[in-house]
Write the structure tokens for this entry.
Amino acid sequence: VAAAPVAAPAAAPADSTAGLLKIESPMVGTFYASPSPDKPAFITAGASVGPGTVVCLVEAMKIFNEINAGVSGTVERILVKSGDPVEFGQVLFLVKPS
């Protein structure tokens, strides 16, 4: 009896973050997308950012810290929701470089 041919493994999907810049949390805390619940988000997907653009707040020990983009480009994805806890080094946003 002949052995059944072994199927080739499926090609791994391309890394969807390839070529994108990461904006990471510089601290452990709580992520906030806007300055207050009744205000619009600092940025949205598709927004252009520069190194000094404030992209969110991270609250740590009752102190609200403004987080700057640190990069230039267009926001492709926002990976966390307002009120979510974040860790040091966690990727918050993915930015397509300009």
User: Anything to note?
Assistant: Strands lie at 21-24, 29-32, 48-49, 54-60, 63-68, 73-78, 85-86, 91-97. The first strand starts at residue 21 and ends at 24.
